[in-house]
Every structure is written in C-alpha cells, then in structure tokens.
Amino acid sequence: MLRRRSLLAAPLLPMLGTLPATAQPVAGGRAVRVVVPFPPGGAIDLLGRLVAERLGPALGQDVVVENRGGAGGILGTDAVAKGPKDGTVIGVIGGATLTAYPTLYSRLPFDPAKDLQPLTQITSGALVCVVNAEVAARRGWTDFRALVAYSKANPEQVKMGSSGPGTSSHLCIEAVNSMAGARILHVPYRGGGPAITDLLAGTIDMMFDVTPALMPHVQAGKFKALALSSKARMDFAPDVPGMGDFADLGLGDLDIVAWNALMVPSGTPEPVAQRLIVAIRQVAADPAFVARLKPLGYDVVLSESPAALTAQVARETPVWKRLVELSGVKLD
C-alpha cells in the first residue's frame, strides 16, 4: 500500500549541468516564503527549514520559513493556495493533504487539484511508532505486540498524539485499531511539535509519526521505537520491525509511507516555476542535505516532472480513500 516508484535525487545529478553559473532570483529578488502548515518543532518544520536555508543561496535571494499551523495543515495549505503567483510562496505539503483530505473532509477551503501547482516531491519516509520510555517500562510495553495487547485489555487508556486529524499519523493508528482490534485513543494536536512536547512529559503515551522529529529522542533514550508503518524494515533503524513482522496481528498488508512535496499557487508562470525547480534540484543534490535527512529516516526523492507528481497523486488518492473508509474517520 502506498508504495510507488519515484526518481531519487542521485539520478538527477546529470540534469544539474543546466544550472546557471550565477543564481537567478525570482520576483525581482523579493524574499521567498517557505510556508510550513504546522507549528515549529515537527518533522515538516525541520524539512522546511533545511530547504529554506539552502534554497536562498541557490536562488540568490532571502528565503524565510513561515509557520501557519492549524486544522491538520489545512490553514497553511490554504494560505499557499491563495498566495501570490509570483514565486514568493512555496508550500511544504504533506502527501496526505493531497490524497486523503478530499475524502476525509466534506468541505475544504481549497481544491488540491485546481489551486495548488506542483513543483516536485522532496522526501519520503516511513512513520515510526514511539512510546514514552518511562511509561513503556512501567506498563510492560516491551514491543508492539505488548502495546496492542495492553490497549485491548484497557480500552482507550493508551493515548496516541498525532500532528492533526486526518494526517498520516492519525490514519495509521486508525488502521491499526481496525485491522488489529487495538483500542488506542487518538489525541489530535495542531502539529507534531506540541504532540512531541506532551509525549516527552508523559501527558500522552505514544505517537505514530514521521521519523525526523522522533528519532533524536529515541537515540537519547526518551522514546522507545516499537514499529514502523512500512511493511519492511528500514536501513536507518534495522532493529525496528515493520508491519510485515506483525502478520499475526492482522497487519501484514499495512504499508504506509509518508511523503512531502513542494508546491506553489496555481497560475504561477511556468518560467518562474521552472526556476524554482532548478534551484530545488540543486538543493537536493547537496550531499549535506541528503546526509542531514537520511539518519532521521527521510529519503530525498524528487519527481521526474510536475506532471509526474500530479500522476502520483491521482494513483494514490484511491488507495488513501480505501484507508480512510477502513478507518471509519470522517471530518467536517
């Protein structure tokens, strides 16, 4: 589920021969805003900041991050959709916003297919299930099976925080509840950062979220990683089981890989969009950028073209629709 073939950053290196010798600013050199539709502190915020700090030199102009959190990323995404069409607004948009939200929400303030213009996918990575290490020790959660068993014996006493209703993290745990018969309580937040803060404090018990914001706390011993949302294990955490290891729980076919894309308001002129794409490819080809994300579980993955990203969204939307229907979640 949700596996797809994309063009990794490495094969794009030959294409960088077309880069200009000197940076070419867009919009007369005015500052570019990278809009992150979540509060500071989460994985998408980290990604947005890494992109922004490298995109500035690539474009030859100031690039700043603007956090516009709320409603599971809807408010920030709407700000991108309604932003100026001159290249000064770039949104870091989660794949679920494009593929799952049209099914989850009966009314959205924007139409992902009409109001957002794709530049490229930028990252891909599995979600990781982490628990507060002290809580896990106290409750005997030695592994993911123990957590599921505890939730069945103690319905809704295990509290899972997510970055917002309808996000990949929310749908993942709803799928676990449905497929494995778990009874885990969903607690939505206005972004991953606030949820992580409460998980560190023990206010909530667990998270199922993208890895960059969580793995440093695993490495510090604050969180315990129990499972990945992908079917297979991943190189960045070879000892953490994937869903394929839990076929006995009914989860063997669950395979969720979250991805993020960079998008601009529809109607942005093609020369401006192409200039941004060239600069983004330059950023993605930087070994330091790739190395910064790799240990955290993010692969740098670029689309072959904007049309390829549009086709990817069209392919994955029915898959996410089935996952939403399986979870029984419907938001207004």
TrEMBL record:
CDD domains: PBP2_Bug_TTT
PANTHER family found in the cross-reference section: BLR1237 PROTEIN, TRICARBOXYLATE-BINDING PROTEIN
Signal peptide: 1-23
Keywords linked to the UniProt accession: Receptor, Signal
Family designation: Belongs to the UPF0065 (bug) family.
Listed SUPFAM superfamilies: Periplasmic binding protein-like II
Top-rank taxon: Bacteria
InterPro entries in alphabetical order: BUG, Bug_dom1
Protein name, per record: Tripartite-type tricarboxylate transporter, receptor component TctC
The keyword tRNA processing is annotated on this UniProt entry: no
